[in-house]
Amino acid sequence: MTGLVWTALALPLAGAAVLAVLGTRLPARGAGWLASLVMLVAFVCSAIATIMLASRPHEERAVVETAWTWLTAGSFQVGLELWFDELTAVMLLVVTGIGFLIHVYSIGYMRGDEQERRFFAYLNLFVFSMLLLVVSGDLVLLLAGWGLVGLSSYLLIGFWHQKPSAIKAAKKAFVMNAIGDVGLALGILLLFIELGTTAYTGVFAGAGSLDSWTATIAALLLLVGAVAKSAQLPLHTWLPDAMEGPTPVSALIHAATMVTAGVYLIARMNPLFHAAPYALETIVVIGVLGLLMAGAIALVQTDIKRIIAFSTMSQIAYMFVGVGLGAYWAGIFHLFTHAFFKALLFMGAGLVIHALHGEQDVRNMGGLRSVMPKTYFCMLIGALALVGIFPLSGGFSKDAILASALEVGTPLAWVAYIGGLAGALLTGIYTFRLMFLVFHRRMSPYAEAVAPTAVKHHGEGPSSMLWPVYILTLGAAVVGLLQVPGLTHVFFDWLEPIAPAGMVEPSAAQEWLTTLVAVSIGVAGIAIAGHLYLREFDATERMRLGRGRLVDHALEHRLYWDDLYAVAFERPAQWLAAVLRRDVDRPVAGWLPTDGLGTLTAFLGRSVSVIENGVVRSYALVIALGMAGLLLALLVRAG
Amino acid sequence: MSVGLPFYLSVSAILFAIGLVGVLLRRSPLTTLLSLEVMLNSVNLTLVAFSRQVGGSDGQVFALVVMGIAAAEVVVGLGLVVAMTRREMVLDTDELRSLSG
């Protein structure tokens, strides 16, 4: 069983290595199929391993296996440790399964790009990093995976490196994630100092014995890492910019897998968070604020991918609320369903963008329903699942989170409940604003000029792009049935053992009540979107809420977070550099015949480089003289 | 009268000096390589002489290693000379200053 997991882990790495080494010796089309084949085998391995895990008795389901110890310092050891339990199995299936579909989709999407091979090498590298993150049984190894997903995300966001905006977005994502990495690393160090180990077994066993302050600080530091990786407040600003990457990347990394790593971390570390109730409350607060803020900002965005990106941030905030309330299974359940419907929405958006020759502005779309009926149908299923309409998948998982808030019943949980329902309204509005603007209404002049001919010649997309979308559509429709309140109980039962301290589970009545309320609110949201955006209006008009200038301005500027960071960090750094140059560098080094310290060192370097003239004989002379000098010195000392 | 250690060392020193002068003064890569070879063999002579004096075999083994390395070095050096001749470059170490192009 563990052998299969090791195989699933090693295959994408091997795929990335082969693609990188063979490079242009591979046919361009072959690279995509090779990478997809690797993913398919990894998925099959994960699925078989999961079935084998399920056939074991409950108490034997957490498997730990150390391949070898790769870091030893005194009594401290870090092994290449595999941790395979129910939570790992869910993550494995999501990463390899959705990953496989997105690899296949990419074959069509990246066709004609000159650097397909590099793309698939990066994509396989990402999958390896993500798998390492979820199967590791040691915090140091998790940190390695954590850093590697950040790296591959950076590489893929900046994949089109000829676009300055893509480079900028990649750098931004990397820097924001580096902040989180530092937090996570500090948290791990603190746990090591207190517990003397970083292996999960030791940490889980020792978490209960930590005093509450230490546990809280460690949990909050881990939370910094989770917040940065999952694009939550206040380190969320990189996610919308990350949409500069190719659309399959957005679907895989920035919707289905990497951004949910924070939720995974919290669920995985639940014994620690259980010992730190303040940290859990912080998670709920971050979640509630994030889901409302991201939902509101999504209302006014004009870039189709950015709308979905803010929606992703909002949905991950729901997951944060879930795990923060102690309903770890609900958070992971939402992660699971979200991976389906959000990847589906991104891939649908990719089909639309493809048909419109790269246009991403929703104002230049409209009326595509008649031109792209298959895409419309699939995205409609995805959108309904996102809004949480019964009986599609998103509803069950989101309502499970909200019902858990009812079950918890503290004042904060009530705030989360109300906030979550308000978020459901926003979800309904922004999702169907997107659907109506893209697929309904009259066609914009641009879409009219481009889309019908494109679809006539190529169809809605090559079959390698359409089939993954169909499969995801099916998934988005049915995976919620794993956990129907009062009827099926698969997901909760499966994940129950991961939290030794127990998990919050709402009653069926609470869930059905929440579903009733949430679905009505979602339908109300759709109705509002219909009222606002189904009527005809000038497509060049700005997409306003019509609620006053201030609100619109604030939302269009994403509540000024980027401006805040510019004022708080960027400007002071520039100011400091200017001051140092004017008041320190010039006065200190000003008397030299050079301009400041920088040019001084360059000048010194040039003057020394004269002796490196390239004449071999002069080098030989210097060596001979040096040797003679040494001999002389020896003689003098001996004599 | 047997030939003693000082004689070997003197011959070795003279050979080394000849080789060094050759490396420093001649500009043809071929001659430079030859001179280097003379220097290496002068050192070999010293090694073997000392080895005989001391009575062990370490020095002789070392001399063999030096020969092996000298052979490898000459292969690279002569290969370069051949390559330069094929490209009709000037065989003058003073002219061959830069690695580029």
Main features:
heterodimer, A: 639 residues, mainly alpha, 3% strand, globular, B: 101 residues, Helix Hairpins, 3 helices
Description:
The complex is a heterodimer of chains A (639) and B (101). Chain A is mainly alpha-helical. Chain A has helices spanning 2-22, 28-54, 86-109, 116-135, 139-157, 164-195, 200-207, 212-229, 238-241, 247-256, 261-268, 270-274, 277-298, 304-324, 328-355, 368-371, 373-387, 393-408, 411-439, 445-458, 463-478, 490-495, 508-533, 549-556, 561-589, 596-608, 616-638, and strands at 63-73, 76-84. Chain A folds into three domains: 1-277, no CATH class; 280-463 and 506-548, no CATH class; 604-639. Helix content of chain A is 73%, strand content 3%. In chain A, helix 6 (164-195) packs antiparallel against helix 8 and helix 18 crosses helix 23 (508-533). Chain B is an all-alpha fold and 101 residues long. Chain B has three helices and no strands. The A-B interface holds A 613-617, 620-621, 624 and B 20, 23-25, 27, 32, 93-94, 96-98.
Q: What would you say about this model in short?
A:
Chain A is mainly α and 639 residues long. Chain A has 27 helices and two strands. Helices cover 73% and strands 3% of the residues of chain A.
Radius of gyration of chain B over all CA atoms, rounded: 17 Å
Determine the number of helices of chain B (DSSP H or I, runs of at least 4 residues): 3
Question: In the CATH hierarchy, what is the architecture of chain B at level 2?
Answer: Orthogonal Bundle
Helical/strand content category of chain A: mainly alpha
Number of helices of chain A: 27
Residue runs with pLDDT of under 50 for 5 or more positions of chain B? none
Q: Unreliable stretches of chain A, pLDDT < 50, 5 or more residues? A: none
Average the pLDDT over all residues of chain A and give the rounded result. 85
Order of secondary-structure elements of chain A:
HHEEHHHHHHHHHHHHHHHHHHHHHHHHH
Structural class of chain B: mainly alpha
For the record, give the distance between the C-alpha atoms at the N and C termini of chain A, rounded to a whole number.
75 Å
Helix content of chain B: over 70%
Q: Roughly what fraction of the amino acids of chain B lie in strands?
A: under 5%
Describe the largest sheet of chain B: none
CATH-defined fold name of chain B? Helix Hairpins
User: Would you report the number of β strands of chain B?
Assistant: 0
CATH domain class of chain B: Mainly Alpha
